[in-house]
């Protein structure tokens, strides 16, 4: 299925992952120019790509980038129990397999590869980088999940009990949390859209999912200095879901040489979808400026590959 959004062509496809599950994938590719680079979307927990990341993808497509997305297992149009993440490693492996294949197509080999992750997707992007440190050329991290905000983190005793219960009732929806839709999405129209979107999971977090998110965010928090790729972090100052101070810590501790951090006063958690349109304009103007500067700086990965090829001659 193909749909045109002005100069951007949208297509959908189902693929099989290594576990034999059918996963939904999609792309937004500019039709009036050769793409400047490739952007790979990593959506947030309980979200999906085709609707909730459409505005972001079209903006990037109109700016000249080819954009690719996929719904994780248990999310959106992909197979799996809705809202259930049995293994974060499996999510990362699925993204790595699919996005690596696209990157290695003949027509794409010399194009810049950028990961774009929002919230939990920021954690996915950082783990994709850790899995293949030399493969990706950069990342845009939108309110990345490197630590669960203290305000919505369950009490340690609750965590202890829930962790034990994971062995017996991993899919049960009994984690006591506030309604994240009300906390994350500032625009009431967007909140309404999400509540009406059957592809977005809106129940309480399932036990195993909550355990996986907590484990991954705690591990990332203690290994921030291992991040080496160029990145831009954008974060709303009023975010109560992921902590802006942890994004600042990532910016300070990461070993990356090229790194930027932008904090937006008054803005909430979901900058790519949940903010008012005029605020999204500001955020995406900054993202596109950073992406174009990254492209103009040249591609160090390709330079390294060329040098290695010359050394072996």
UniProtKB/TrEMBL annotation:
Q: What are the recorded GO MF terms, alphabetically?
A: hydrolase activity
Q: Cross-referenced Gene3D superfamilies, in alphabetical order?
A: alpha/beta hydrolase
User: Taking every annotated instance into account, which residue ranges of this chain make up the domain Serine aminopeptidase S33?
Assistant: 34-271
Cross-referenced InterPro entries: AB_hydrolase_1 (IPR000073), AB_hydrolase_fold (IPR029058), Hydrolase_4 (IPR022742), MAG_DAG_Lipase (IPR051044)
Which top-rank group of organisms is this from? Eukaryota
The protein here is known as Serine aminopeptidase S33 domain-containing protein
């Amino acid at each position: 299925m193909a749909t045109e959004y002005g100069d951007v062509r949208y297509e959908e496809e189902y693929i099989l992952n290594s576990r034999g599950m059918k996963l939904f994938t999609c792309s937004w590719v500019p039709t009036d120019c050769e793409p400047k680079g490739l952007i790979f979307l990593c959506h947030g927990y309980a979200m999906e790509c085709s609707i909730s990341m459409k505005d972001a993808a079209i903006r990037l497509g109109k700016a000249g980038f080819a954009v690719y997305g996929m719904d994780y297992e248990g999310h959106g149009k992909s197979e799996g129990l809705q809202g259930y993440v049995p293994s974060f490693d499996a999510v990362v492996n699925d993204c790595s397999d699919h996005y690596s294949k696209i990157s290695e197509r003949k027509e794409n080999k010399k194009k810049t590869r950028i990961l774009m992750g929002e919230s939990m997707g920021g954690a996915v992007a950082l783990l994709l980088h850790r899995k293949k440190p030399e493969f990706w050329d950069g990342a845009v991290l939108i309110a990345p999940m490197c630590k669960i905000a203290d305000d919505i983190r369950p009490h340690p005793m609750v965590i202890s009990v829930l962790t034990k219960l994971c062995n017996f009732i991993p899919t049960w929806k009994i984690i006591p949390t506030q309604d994240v839709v009300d906390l994350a999405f500032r625009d009431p129209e967007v909140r309404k859209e999400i509540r009406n979107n059957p592809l977005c999971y809106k129940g309480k977090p399932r036990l195993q999912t909550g355990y996986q998110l907590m484990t991954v965010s705690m591990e990332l928090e203690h290994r921030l200095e291992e991040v080496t790729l160029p990145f831009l972090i954008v974060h709303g100052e009023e975010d109560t879901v992921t902590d802006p101070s942890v994004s600042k810590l990532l910016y300070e501790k990461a070993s990356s040489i090229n790194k930027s951090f932008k904090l937006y006063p008054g803005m909430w958690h979901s900058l790519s979808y949940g903010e008012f349109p005029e605020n999204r304009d500001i955020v995406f103007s900054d993202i596109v400026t950073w992406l174009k500067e990254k492209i103009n700086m040249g591609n160090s990965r390709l330079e390294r590959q060329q040098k290695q090829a010359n050394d072996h001659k």
